[in-house]
Amino acid sequence: MTESESIVNGAPAERVRASSQARGAAAGNGNPDISDAEFAQFQKLIYKIAGISLADTKKVLLVGRLGRRLKHHGLSSFAEYHRLVASGAEPDELQTMVDLLTTNETYFFREEAHFEFLAKTILPRHPAGTPFNAWSAASSTGEEIYTLAFVLAETLGLDAAWHVTGSDISTAVLAKAEQGLYWLDRTRGLPQSYLRRFCLKGVRSQEGGFMIAPEIKRHTRFMQVNLNRTLPALGKFHVIFLRNVMIYFDAETKRQVVARLIEHLHPGGYFIVGHSESLNGLTDTLHALKPTIYQLPA
Ligand SMILES: C[S@@+](CC[C@H](N)C(=O)[O-])C[C@H]1O[C@@H](n2cnc3c(N)ncnc32)[C@H](O)[C@@H]1O
User: Fold this and answer.
1) For residues 285-295, average pLDDT
2) Is 168 an annotated catalytic residue?
């Protein structure tokens, strides 16, 4: 359901082994070899599209993930596949490549302190009766969207006016998010009380799974948004979660992405990044409240 290994980061020590591993892996699973020059073409392409800096160490993973696309198209080299996706003639295949090269690791209540901050600090300060809007800006398969929704439902009530927008560059993960069907083994961190109140038990083909209840889903919307481009008209938000995606960007891309997102914050709105991320040196506009939690002055 999610991928556990990052395709864009890697320890420097791995770098030395990367080329030979790529050849070994290629030989083992029927994929063609990838040369350094071919790999560099994909690094450039994914950087240009998504702003993702693909580490040299990720050659083996790239071969593993894109190899089946070569087979699908009957191509015998990565150079040919690169020509196909970079030509602009096959936008769907380019999207498939982006889907395969992004890392989508996520889970319910990931970095729980952020949700506690939402419930105990942000929501109590929000003017009663005013709609509350949250944005999960790199939402992956939706666990972050629905965790936000559970906390909003619990704190403001199911009938209150609140909305969660979930967006991602990957249409594959967005489709899963929109479906809202998860396997019970994905409930790590999800309190049983939320499961009971806000989810439905899967039956028949969905046995062993749970479905997000329609009462929660009606507060959500899903959009494909590439943070590396001018953003669409999304409106303004009281809180933006931009977590565990900037780790894949270089400093300049981070700076541009953060500047774009700040435009979508209400005055006094909150901006939350992942625990291994920081906005230090990226913006002067936000005020740091505590590590990973920032606020736009009112
Ligand atoms: C590791 S997941 C993070 C999920 C969630 N925010 C969390 O913290 O658990 C990173 C997500 O960022 C998305 N992503 C990568 N580059 C992006 C871009 N340029 N625009 C929008 N989303 C992007 C990926 O598709 C992936 O689903």
Assistant:
1) 98
2) yes
First-last CA distance in the chain: 40
DSSP-H helix ranges across 157-226:
171-179, 192-198, 214-217
Regarding the beta carbon of 272 and ligand 1, being less than 6 Å apart is answered no
204 is catalytic: no
Place of tokens 């565990």: 244
User: Which pTM was predicted?
Assistant: 0.91
As a whole number of angstroms, the distance between CA 46 and CA 117 comes to: 34
Domains of the chain, CATH where assigned:
12-101 (1.10.155.10), 113-295 (3.40.50.150)
246-275: average pLDDT: 98
Strand-pair partners of 39: none
Q: Give the E-state strand segments of the chain in sequence order.
A: 132-136, 162-168, 181-183, 199-201, 209-212, 220-224, 237-242, 265-273, 287-290, 293-295
What separation in Å is there between the alpha carbon of 297 and the centre of ligand 1? 26
Which two three-digit tokens encode residue 200? 């439905």
Which residue, among 283, 20, 240, has the nearest Cα to 134 in the 3D structure?
Answer: 240
